[in-house]
Structures are given as C-alpha cells and as structure tokens.
Specification:
601 residues, alpha+beta, five-stranded antiparallel sheet, 21 helices, 40% helix, 14% strand, MULE_transposase_dom
Length: 601
C-alpha cells in the first residue's frame, strides 16, 4: 500500500477506525503462516486475522483457539533453547533474522522470552518517508516456560520491510516488487538527485546470521548422506566442499566458518561411530540372553579397542538342521556403483569397510529355495585369521557337521585356505561372482561385459565334458585371456560335472555365494541389488561404521522373514505340497501327458 501524501491527508479526514500511519505498511505473508504451522509454532486451530483493518491483524494468541498446554502453537518445547532453535528455523526459511528482545529465567527451568525481527544493514522498509533508524518491524514471538515446558503465548507475523535480504548482495532496486523504495545509504551519499545517477554507490555485502551452526551442519550432513559411503565422504570433506554445498542451498560462509563446521562435523562423526561400537557388546549380550541358545562372541584388543564380533541366532541355528546341505560364505561389500558425490568420484577402495571393518556372513537354503542367512560377524579386515575364527565359531555350534556340506565361497583373501584347514572334508565350490569380479576384473584387469560374464556362468553349469568343450571354444573366440586364467583353476572346483565326479555331492545348481542367483536372474546384478541381500539386510546401505544399526536391521529381518514363513505354512493345507515341489510335480505331470504308450506285441 503506497503512503498517502500530506495534502491528501488534509483534504480527506482520517476515519477514527483507520490504522496508525506506521501500521499501513505492515504486510502479512500467508506463506509465513504455513511455515509456522509446519514447524509447530502455530496451531491449525488458532485463527489469524487477514483483515488489515482489524486491530488483531496478523496476531495469534492463546485465547484465540489455542490450548493451555501448547499455547497458540502445536508443539510443546522442552527448553528455551529448543524453542529458540525452532523460531530460527522459521526465520531462516522465510528470509529474515531474529534477536532476543527480552528474557527471564526461573529456577524450575521456566521463564519468559521474546523474539523480534532484527533490523539488517541497508534493509529496505516499505515506508519510504520515515527514516530507517526510527522504524521497527512489528514481528514478535512471545514464549513462556514452566517446569521445563515451553510454549508460545502470543505471536505477530507482520513485517514492514522486504524479506530475504540476507540472500542478496545488495538491497533490491527502487520499484522492485511493485513498491517504491530507496536505499538509505545511497540517499546519504548523494547530495542531489542529478549526481546520484553519476555516482556508483558501494553497498556493504550482507549475510544472514540467523542460521545457527547446528543448522548449517545439518544441511551439509543431509547432502552428504544422499550418496553412498557417507562415512567416507564425511571423513574426507574439506572447507571447499562445505562452502560449495552451502552455496548450492543459497548460503555463503567464509573459510573460517567452513573450518568450524568441518571440525564440528568430524567430532560428531567420530562420537557417533565410537558410541555405536561401545554399545555393540552390550546390545548383542542382551539379544543373546533374550534368545537362549544363540551364539555370541565379541573380542577386544589389549587396549580395549574393538577387534571382532560374531552372532548366530538360536532361531536361525535351529532352522539350519532342516535345510539343504549347502552353505555359502561371503563378505558384504559396498555398493559397486558409486555416483558422483560432493567430494567427486570415490575410489573403489575408499569405502566404509576400509575405515571400520568388513562384515562376514554365512547362508544356507531350505528345500523351498528360500535363503537363510544364519550368521553375521564384523571383523577388522577380511583375511585368513578372521575367516578361520569365523568358521571355528560355526563349527563350535555342533548343530551339523559342516564337513558334509557343499561350500560355495571365494578363494581369495585367505578363504580357500581357511576352509581347507577348518573343514577339510567339505566340498569347496568356487563362487563364480568373486572369481569374475575379484580375480579377472580387479587383479587381472580383464574387461568384462555382461555377455562375457554370462558365458562364464554358462560354462560353469556344464553338465558334461562335451558341453564344456563346446562352450569353451565359443568363449575363447571372444575372451581368450579369461579362458586362459580359468584353465589354471581346478575344474572340479568350479564346473558342475567335474564337481559331481570328484566330490559326489550336488551343487544344487548354485554358482555364487549369493544363493538367490540359482536361476541366473540375479547373476549379473550387484550384491546389494540381489534378493538375498535385500531380504536380510534391507535396501539401506550397510555401513561398518554403524554396527549397532546393521545388527539391529539384521535381527529385525530375522523376525520379519520367520513370521512370513510361519504364516505361509499356517495357511497352506496339510495335504498340499510346498509351492516349489508342487510346481515340479506339475511339470512332471505335464510331461507324462505327452508320452504315448504303444503295445510292442
């Protein structure tokens, strides 16, 4: 609303119900009300007058739809600090700043506080005639606390100036937004209107100081957490990356503030990791006590530092006795597909496992082709010592004799030697995914397309020597280097027909340690996108820096999967076969219908 001139005021008398001259420039932005409701600072039941002529225009108070407990807000705050932080969030979102106009405290944790809108340097008010030094924004929030419960008793959401000034290098030009306004600094430096256009006025750069350190750290953390291996990203983050992240969200900080943010983020990261490892032992002990028969081991070094931990649930351990005689051993890797992060492209070895350790797991499969991950361990690194410790832990359960099992596992990082030492009579079938990814691609640097990988998997499924020779000749023409490397391996440890001839044990049509890949549908996918990994660890990335969360997620999945399987058995009639066996029976019956019996007489 434009200001009326003095002549117009003399010609037309002001009605007695008219607002004071200063209040004619007060503006109510409904977006401010919506944001206040979203943050819990304003209750939906409190009505705020939108009538500019009303005496309570833009004002919310407790007696106008509020409650005695929460006041005119929706939330009750535990302290003045939490109330202040929430009010700062409102100011940050809506483009203005706050300061504490007055406060008082009591011994019981209560008191009073009032927040007002801060006057910024070079800020443009909507009233062009009144000097800026004599103007004050009508916005305020009154808080009251008693017995450590704080509420908002009254608030005025009006402003008489342009907002979002902290995001501008200079004040908006005259006439911007449909209003006529001038910068006070420009007016004071130009003696006349003619010379004002000739002089280039230098306006002091403005910054928004309402945003707290906590809010800035939260912005950086949320951005880094959008990408894989966030713990590595947080460990590598520097001041340039922090300034770049904040600048992308409209906030500019200097190098000193970026350094303070980095230091606080590093301290919070280390404290979070340390807290997770310190609580892991107590957490696993409680779970083991609540589930009698569970196997629980945790080892620490001489200085008390974490070394390794193992947990085998009693429920999964009892289920192993009713599963097939096949066990897979593998580690849980990071996501192979690492996109660009705020810090650039992360190297393959720069993953979370390098910092805090690596997970080892053991799985088996029941007679309905459902995978059961029954053991999980966290060790410092994947080597022969830790694998032997893991296998001895399985052997000590004495639930089954693992020497009678077909073991699907890799052969690098001490795994093959460990199996031979601990389970000497077990039949070791190489995990073809690890042979291809760990040996052919990473060590030998042989390029592999999905078609070439599939050809190697088909070669490993050969049912006879004739089929093997045929597929091998076809593979030599496209990937001679890979065939030459595979020829050096013992064929009995990775080709189906040779494995059956030597060990006299079935492979159950498994080629990889991820037992959900038997049908070939997941063979070309990464471990994190396989059905087994998602079924037992969820879709969230697994991080060795947060073992407490990982083990908790694993325990939750055990309860979820066992409940689903119990329900499926409960609803299935007793005379019906399980789905897999029923499907096999139907195939046999369909095949028998095609047969024709002829009398040879």
């Amino acid at each position: 609303m434009a200001a009326t001139s003095s002549k117009a005021s003399e010609a037309r008398p002001v009605p007695p119900t008219a607002l004071p001259a200063a209040s004619q420039f007060n503006r109510l932005d409904e977006m401010d009300l919506q944001e206040a409701k979203r943050l819990g600072l304003l209750s939906d039941t409190v009505s705020v007058s939108l009538d500019a002529a009303a005496p309570d225009f833009g004002i919310a108070y407790e007696k106008k739809g509020g409650t005695r407990t929460a006041g005119c807000g929706a939330d009750v705050f535990s302290s003045q600090k939490s109330l202040q932080e929430r009010c700062k969030q409102l100011a940050m979102k809506r483009g203005f700043q706050l300061f504490v106009s007055g406060s008082s405290t009591r011994q019981n944790g209560g008191g009073n506080v009032k927040y007002r809108c801060k006057k910024l340097h070079g800020q443009q008010f909507l009233d062009p005639n009144t000097p800026a030094s004599k103007q004050q924004c009508p916005f305020y929030i009154n808080g009251y606390g008693k017995d450590q419960s704080w509420k908002i008793t009254r608030a005025c959401f009006l402003h008489n100036h342009f907002k979002f000034i902290g995001w501008r290098v200079a004040p908006p030009a005259a006439g911007e937004g449909g209003e006529t306004a001038k910068s006070d600094s420009a007016t004071s430096q130009s003696p006349s209107s003619e010379t004002a256009g000739d002089q280039k006025v230098k306006v002091r750069r403005q910054r928004n100081t309402t945003i707290s350190m906590k809010a800035l750290c939260r912005m950086v953390t949320e951005e880094v957490n959008k990408y894989p291996a966030p713990n590595v990203g947080m460990a590598k983050i520097d001041g340039k990356a922090i300034r770049r992240i904040l600048l992308s969200q409209g906030h500019t900080v200097n190098h000193m503030m970026a350094s303070r943010i980095k230091r606080q983020l590093q301290e919070a990261r280390i404290a979070k990791v340390r807290d997770s490892f310190q609580k892991l032992g107590g957490y696993l002990k409680i779970v083991a006590e609540k589930n009698q028969g569970s196997v629980f081991q945790i080892e620490t070094g001489e200085n008390g530092a974490f070394k390794r931990a193992l947990f085998i649930s009693s429920a999964t351990l009892n289920a192993v006795k009713h599963c097939r005689k096949i066990v897979s051993l593998d580690h849980i890797t990071h996501n192979d597909e690492l996109p660009e992060t705020p810090l650039g492209k992360l190297d393959d070895e720069e993953n979370d496992d390098i910092i805090c350790g690596v997970y080892l797991k053991a799985s088996t499969k029941d007679f309905n082709d459902d995978v059961l991950t029954f053991a999980l361990a966290l060790v410092a690194e994947e080597d022969q010592d830790n694998w032997e410790w893991f296998l001895h832990g399985l052997q000590d359960t004495k639930v089954v004799d693992w020497n009678d099992y077909t073991v699907v596992a890799g052969r690098t990082r001490g795994l093959q030697v460990s199996i031979r030492n601990v389970w000497p009579q077990a039949s070791h079938h190489f995990c073809m995914r690890r042979v291809v990814e760990d040996e052919l691609v990473m060590v030998k640097k042989i390029p592999m397309t999905p078609e070439k990988k599939q050809s190697i998997f088909d070669l490993a499924r050969s049912d006879s020597e004739t089929e093997y020779d045929t597929l091998r000749k076809a593979l030599v023409r496209t990937n001679e280097a890979a065939v030459a490397y595979l020829d050096e391996l013992d064929r009995a440890n990775w080709v189906k027909y040779a494995f059956l001839e030597k060990f006299r044990r079935p492979t159950f049509n498994e080629l990889t340690s991820d037992l959900s890949m038997a049908l070939g549908s997941d063979e070309l996918s990464s471990q994190h996108s396989s059905a087994t990994h998602i079924g037992w660890f969820g879709e969230d990335p697994i991080g060795s820096s947060q073992p407490l969360y990982t083990f908790n997620q694993y325990f939750m999945k055990i309860a979820e999967n066992f409940h689903k399987r119990r329900q499926s058995v409960k609803l299935r009639p007793t005379h019906e076969l399980v789905p897999l066996r029923d499907a096999q029976l139907q195939q046999i019956l369909q095949g028998s219908q095609r047969c024709e019996v002829r009398n040879s007489l």
